[in-house]
Predict the structure of Serine/threonine protein kinase.
Amino acid sequence: MLKPGTLLHGRYRILRPIGRGGMGAVYEAEDTLLEGRRCAIKEILLGFEADPAYREQARAQFYREASVLARLDHPNLPKVSDYFSEGDRDYLVMDFVPGRDLRELIDEARESGRFLDERTVLSWAEQLCEALDYLHRQNPPIVHRDIKPSNIKLTPDGRIKLVDFGLVKLLAPDEDRTITVLQGRGTAAYTPLEQYGGDVGHTDIRSDIYALGATLYHLLTNTPPPDARQRFLKPDSLIPPRALNPRISPRVERAILNAMALHPDDRPPSIAAFRAELLGTAPPSPPAAVWAPPESPWEVLWRRHRLLALAALGIFVLALLITLMHG
């Protein structure tokens, strides 16, 4: 860990650590070239000390992909303003976002015996959808892969910020690797099944839809959902949201459960589609089809010509009655 007062890149003075993980840490720092500006600095340990060639390749990837993040500009995302390397560490400099993260608000609500208001949560969800839609529309698309309450901040002016790019993945057509800035695989309760494969697993924008659905589940129920591996082994382990918080509307419950489908093909195809379903601006998804055995040829004939058959039967019965009456 870097000590307070450490000067990085001849410019950024460390104030305090904000968070720490297995691949590095995040610090609050002051920019000595712009008086009064505070920033967040994400530290990434390169590792792989025994393989200099791989370290060189990883660092080149970091610079290439950090430059992509630096071009992003959206009100619900922190602005990446600088990136550099010192020793065996890479650093990403972003806006420091004041406020409280949503995990803190969940814990506060649970401790006071209440739930967060659905309308408030939906207003946050709408802002998150705007940020994710922006990321997914980049060329190539950017998948965040680490959406969770502790990575979302509510600023003093009421704006939502998705603050950590820790697991971002660029969906380049010729490259399917996690970008260096994002070491790791996400947090279990919010991670879809396909993401457990790491770089081998196939993740796309629908992985973010799952994570957002799981985050909304936690926000509205005060309970984190079971992880996807547990749900795969025990399908009934996911308790419907309204069973935990009856004040959740059926529409919102349905949208969350659709987003959290284990198979990506069963989720909404885009953030826009999920947002429409969540906010009620589009018809709900049709219910899943129920399997039925194939029809026999006689059943097909009956279904297609039943009116004609019934008419013929009626004529036959009428003729039989007339015959009996005059017999």
